[in-house]
Amino acid sequence: MQQPRVLVLQDISASCRISMNVAVPVLSCLNNAVNVLPTALLSTHTGVRFPDYTFLDLTSEIKKIIQHWKVLSIQFDGILVGYLGSIEQINLVRELKRDFLKEDGILVLDPVMGDHGFLYPGFDTMYVEEMRKLCQEVSVLLPNMTEASLLVGRDYQPAPYTPEQIESLLKELASLNRQKVMLTGVSFEAGKVGAASYDYENQTMTNAFGPLQPGLFDGTGDLFSSVIGGFMFQRKPLSYAMETAVEYVHRVIMRTIESGAELRFGVQFETDLPYLIERLYQK
């Protein structure tokens, strides 16, 4: 079986199981040949449970890598974009798409900007506007509810939501890229959380839910987008990828709770990678 050659563009948190540290193994187990382009190197992630973390911006190195890749005529079947630290890096994504993504390649964007109704530190309205423009150029858009609200200029509302609210938001998001969109953090009733997707081409909405567990599980958003990217690069249906990602993240959260591990360093995602492989070859 021929492997798609894919690129991951996001940060590395050196001691935590999030971002690049989870994207590479997830994409690899889904039979993708993974290439990496780190946007920043951090000692830990930037959550409130880690004060005084270190941060090294890698924009200058990205530019040098891109120039070398142009000499090598490298081409990618897919690109997965996560955390971008600046507007300059958003512009570099456009360059990567133009120069390295195959004509029929897939660009998956997790527009990391905020959560729980707030922008992450270091981002402002100008960044949101540039991210909104980038969304128009992607194949699959994967915001959470906060990021979706920012992208379409709506006020953030906490869960629960009605199906009509989610469908309206999905359609408005899909007007940006006119392809596929997926919302994470969707909940229609207490005790359940998941995702909802919309395909602009055939105008279909689907959703998938699992039990909601109390607590803060850093890295699960990165896991989710990695699973979606991995299945999309393998040309699997969007709804199938979403169902798999929701179930996988639920399994990972339950296993992490049972292990008693310190949650701030991330979740125990490795043990259930065989589930993803099984699902890959089921459809």
What would you note in describing this structure?
With 283 residues, this protein is of the alpha/beta class. The chain has one domain (5-280): 3-Layer(aba) Sandwich (UDP-N-acetylmuramoyl-L-alanine:D-glutamate ligase). It is 41% helix and 23% strand. It is built from nine helices and eleven strands. It has helices at residues 20-29, 59-72, 87-100, 125-135, 145-152, 163-177, 220-233, 238-259, 273-280; strands at 5-13, 33-42, 55-57, 76-81, 101-109, 114-115, 118-119, 140-141, 180-186, 192-199, 204-211. The strands form two sheets. Strands 3-2-1-4-5-8-9-10-11 form a nine-stranded mixed β-sheet, sandwiched between helices. Strand 9 and strand 10 (192-199) form a beta hairpin. It is globular. The mean pLDDT is 96.
Which overall shape is indicated by the principal axes computed on the Cα atoms?
globular
Instruction: Give the name of the CATH superfamily.
Output: Ribokinase
**Structural class based on helices, strands and sheet pairing:** alpha/beta
Proportion in helices: 40-55%
> How many E-type strands?
11
Number of helices: 9
Summarize the structure.
The protein has 283 residues and is of the alpha/beta class.
Topology:
Blueprint: E1 5-13, H1 20-29, E2 33-42, E3 55-57, H2 59-72, E4 76-81, H3 87-100, E5 101-109, E6 114-115, E7 118-119, H4 125-135, E8 140-141, H5 145-152, H6 163-177, E9 180-186, E10 192-199, E11 204-211, H7 220-233, H8 238-259, H9 273-280
Parallel strand pairs: 1-2, 1-4, 4-5, 5-8, 8-9
Antiparallel strand pairs: 2-3, 6-7, 9-10, 10-11
Helix pairs in contact: 1-7, 2-3, 3-4, 7-8
